[in-house]
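can u do me a favor
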């Protein structure tokens, strides 16, 4: 197949969406398929883009005031490429984000006369109001539901990372055939990390108890709860250190909260870490990975930590509930700082528990391998293309295979 993907974000902009696109596209190319990705050009931000085994068509983009890290695709610049793209013989368009990429992707699919699949990566109902604070939260949530339903019903099929998110979309009134297809883990990339090297780099004593959190520093990630949890842990383990790896619009707020809670000496903000071993070393420097987001449609960072044999202490809400199903390699906490702290202290102080969870974590992560989930996405593509062919020959029909959302 020849696949045309389009997204409002991609590396060097670090997000779970970027990771998902990269993981699937690399797997597709490895299986002999052709992939072109249309994504913003971040050159004006001074960021270097990674080289990839697939084609990336970088489009000039505008600065986005509500989130300085993001860029806005210029549709006119994309239209300049229409004729070239039309000659490529693409089989399908895959849209990854609901902003300019959604509408441009639909236009491209019509122009190329091919079906279109869309991934619903982000729980926007619990997201948008953080970035438009001058509009009432309830109003923004209604807007998010309306646009999510309208956009999802525009496409031929949906790829959704968790059953929890699929249930919400159905509640919105989405009727489009959908398959639950999480993003897999490239196990080869997350098979080795050197926690001692990370500690040496950042001047952390070998014996100091460390917890790690990796995510975009965004308000919807619920990192405030983790900091309040840390304050409770500090009462029992005074020298505990929380390493927070990531960057984002909530960083200044979180740093102020750290000072207010008296946690300056117990918290290390590293900023973004490259996936050249630096991030893997960071994960492995911790006795446990802590997480508390309420809005994850999947929670890739949990799987990355587990693949490296790092125990997880986390709440289980939305997609994280499915990642942590069965509790193998993790202690699942209530959405409460007291319970989260109690479980983190258990892992920090019980070496036998920590070792057992580490073994279970690595075993559990293997069931989420990228090749397996890439095959599931390719099957969805094949069904969507087949459905288009059949509908042209004999009228509209719905293929039950597109409702195949069995869990991993």
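np, heres the sequence
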């Amino acid at each position: 197949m020849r696949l045309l993907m389009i997204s409002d974000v991609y590396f060097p902009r670090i997000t779970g969406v970027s990771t998902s696109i990269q993981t699937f596209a690399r797997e597709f190319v490895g299986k002999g398929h052709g992939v072109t990705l249309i994504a913003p050009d971040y050159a004006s931000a001074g960021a270097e883009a990674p080289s990839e085994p697939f084609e990336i068509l970088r489009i000039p983009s505008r600065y986005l005031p509500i989130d300085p890290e993001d860029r806005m695709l210029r549709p006119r610049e994309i239209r300049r490429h229409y004729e070239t793209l039309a000659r490529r013989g693409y089989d399908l368009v895959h849209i990854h984000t609901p902003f300019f990429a959604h509408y441009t992707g639909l236009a491209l699919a019509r122009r190329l006369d091919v079906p279109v699949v869309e991934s619903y990566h982000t729980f926007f109902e619990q997201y948008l109001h953080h970035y438009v604070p001058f509009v009432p939260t309830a109003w923004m949530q209604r807007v998010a539901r309306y646009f999510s339903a309208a956009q999802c019903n525009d496409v031929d099929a949906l790829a959704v990372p968790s059953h929890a998110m699929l249930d919400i979309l159905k509640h919105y009134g989405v009727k489009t055939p959908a398959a639950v297809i999480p993003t897999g883990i490239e196990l080869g990339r997350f098979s080795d990390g050197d926690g001692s090297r990370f500690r040496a780099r950042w001047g952390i004593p070998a014996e100091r108890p460390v917890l790690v959190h990796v995510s975009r520093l965004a308000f919807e990630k619920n990192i405030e709860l983790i900091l309040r949890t840390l304050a409770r842990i500090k009462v029992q383990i005074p020298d505990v250190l929380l390493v927070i790896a990531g960057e984002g619009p909530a960083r200044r707020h979180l740093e102020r909260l750290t000072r207010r809670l008296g946690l300056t000496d117990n918290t290390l903000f590293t900023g973004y870490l490259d996936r050249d071993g630096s991030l893997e070393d960071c994960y492995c420097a911790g006795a446990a990975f802590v997480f508390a987001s309420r809005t994850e449609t999947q929670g890739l960072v949990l799987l990355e930590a587990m693949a490296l044999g790092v125990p997880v202490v986390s709440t289980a809400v939305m997609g994280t509930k499915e990642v942590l199903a069965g509790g193998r390699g993790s202690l699942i906490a209530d959405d409460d700082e007291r319970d989260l702290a109690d479980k983190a202290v258990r892992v920090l102080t019980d070496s036998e528990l920590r070792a057992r969870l580490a073994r279970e974590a690595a075993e559990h992560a293997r069931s989420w391998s990228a090749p397996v989930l890439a095959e599931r996405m390719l099957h969805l593509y094949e069904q969507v293309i087949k459905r288009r062919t059949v509908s042209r020959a004999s009228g509209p029909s719905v293929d039950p295979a597109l409702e195949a959302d069995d869990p991993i």
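The mean pLDDT is 92. hope that helps!!
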